[in-house]
């Protein structure tokens, strides 16, 4: 582990320990603190499971060669607020697992849809200082006991293993108090999100950070309420549901305004140039997240052949859904379907798959058409972002901001060549 990685990870652990104060007193809060304590032997597994290791790798990778050691140390406190917030954000984000289409064995589908809508509204209100936030959060309480944070995760078995180790040392705790613990997590999610926005409260990027956060929660609700929206609208909405705009705005604000001041940065924010670059980056990362790097870059003849194979298979089993067809092809196309695999298995929202529960022969043409368009948008936006970043570097006479944006996209290009359950792919903004 490099010195920078260790410094940021150690600071993140301290931040996570402090964040437990945002949780109501509960067995889960005790479990959370227990899992973080090195002497219990679970800390490394817990940090990997909740995403802290991936978040720290992102921060270090973004800033390698951009700042010297003294500047890095000055930046580390900024990494804590955003990394802690995103750890809790994973829990609320996981509520959407399985909501793209209802399966027969999903007893919590309706409850989670309603819970997510109400939570998103509460977050938007709290970020806008609307006093009804507490009422909004209390309104979700009756829905909470129905939802397992284990089931609503990408690694249920890993959560269960850690719980069993905790229960062995704390036999009086009921297992359900650890598994059905959305309440303390959502409370901490709200408070750490507001705290993140407040860190940038006096910075030029304050509005961008807050706007990006609000856009995330508003966008998720829009996807829930308008599943049939046209592809262009779905791409725009989905670009906001991923945490790219507030995350990059936060980092470049800390850099360009505090640690390594850039003359002209103010005008970059004022005239909208920075937002345009962040939106391009957000859309690129959303496409990488949903489609995967290798499938986005697949040559056209190979893509055409892939869909010829899929059509032949669909014709042999016309009763099967697109989910069934893709599920049966995951192993063969493992390197292409690194991200498709996650959304097929988890029934998550995906910009290319809006009718995946329909018969494959009916849904496959739309899936193919969406993929072709998404590949075009990806190539076009990638070129456009490169031009914007070159212009930003020229205007500032400093490559710092451009490097951070470019590296953020590059980090996810590398990340999403891997499967979601690979230790280095177990992370997403």
Which descriptors apply to this entry?
429 residues; mainly alpha; 0% strand
Mean pLDDT: 94
What general outline do the C-alpha atoms trace?
Answer: globular
Number of strands: 0
Largest sheet: none
Structural class: mainly alpha
What is the N-to-C order of secondary-structure elements (H for helix, E for strand)? HHHHHHHHHHHHHHHHHHHHH
Low-confidence stretches are none
The number of distinct helices, counting runs of at least 4 residues, comes to 21
How would you sum up this structure in a few lines?
With 429 residues, this protein is mainly alpha-helical. The protein has two domains: 1-199, no CATH class; 228-247 and 260-429, no CATH class.
Secondary structure blueprint with pairings:
Blueprint (H helix, E strand, L loop, with lengths): L2 H17 L7 H10 L6 H7 L2 H12 L5 H25 L15 H19 L5 H8 L15 H14 L5 H5 L2 H18 L6 H20 L5 H11 L2 H16 L5 H6 L2 H19 L1 H4 L3 H17 L5 H6 L12 H7 L13 H37 L3 H16 L14
Helix pairs in contact: 1-4, 1-5, 4-5, 4-21, 5-10, 5-13, 6-7, 6-10, 6-11, 10-11, 11-12, 11-13, 12-15, 13-15, 13-21, 15-20, 15-21, 17-20, 20-21
